[in-house]
Amino acid sequence: MKRFNVLDAAWALEVPGERLKALRRAAQPVREALLASGPVTALRCCPLVTLPYPTTYAFSGAALSPAPYVQLTGRMGVVQFNDWEGQARTLLFNPSDVERGGKTPFYANLAQRYGTFVAGRLLGQVHGTVLSHLAELGLGVQQVDYLAYDHLHLQDVRGWLGAEGIPGVFPRAQLLVDRLEWASTRELHPMQVVWYAPEGTRGVDERRVVPLEGDAWLGPGVALLRTPGHTLGHRSLAAVTDRGLFVFSGNGVATECYAPLQSTLPGLRTWAERMGCEVVPNGSTLESSLDQYASMVLEKLVAGPSSVDPLYPNVLPSGELTASLLCPGLSPTFSLDPPSQGAIRP
Ligand SMILES: [Zn+2]
What we know:
The longest helix has 21 residues, at 16-36. The chain has one domain (5-322): 4-Layer Sandwich (Metallo-beta-lactamase, Chain A), CATH 3.60.15.10. A hairpin with a 2-residue loop joins strand 8 and strand 9. By secondary structure, it is an alpha/beta fold. The mean pLDDT is 95. Helices cover 29% and strands 22% of the residues. The chain is built from 11 helices and 13 strands. The structure holds zinc ion.
């Protein structure tokens, strides 16, 4: 696994404004290095679930709407690549165990407040499961080498990796996770508790966990970039395809949150102008809001402009704003087609 020294040096700067400036400078060489390393062998994006999410968090209070909730769609990325030794590898990015994750206090409370009938309608849009998507792609569980998440909100990995009394579905897979994100789940701060699945990592064999310190450049065309903010241990997936370099992140909920001056979502553009901000963070936790802003700038510069409309960057939110009758007026102005690359090899 390689690291980007230029990003390490930027993150090491203490003053937030200097850090942001250094990250801006570092983004271009990182983007060029990733692109020059070539595309991943294969990539698919598989929709898992659409969930309600408070409007005020989604846009850090910038959107003007009476709708209390927007709908976000979570996707799993299936990435096949060669590692630096030339070994073919399969990575699942954001493989959410929707059933176990439903016990996350924020969503369990919502179900309790609105009753199971309404909450069922609000919460019940499952598009597919990790295992149904793998079966469709012709992949067996023993072929999965790595699991990784942008962050561990709502995630319960015990069913995948195994834990005391719970058999694991993936016999070989290792979890690539930011050291701090993993450690956070071991001793949650009261302000973190509502967003994490209770005991979602408890009893997992530590030998199945690979804690990451800096960026993890996994192989040609693929990296897990260190992008703290939404959580302190947040990571973004950067993947090169024939359609360009895509970045998948939980720091923003819509591509236009990375280009708010283009947004027709009520309030976003004026908020960005008034605040002098070029990104609108996903603000449920704000574990580190200055870093989240810097990470979003880094993400959009590494991703580069979309080939469909260069006014928007190639950033795909891992929980993406989805048009819904439940939140009229809050349909995305622009959505990227999730990329698809090569043929998935069993
Ligand atoms: Zn989150």
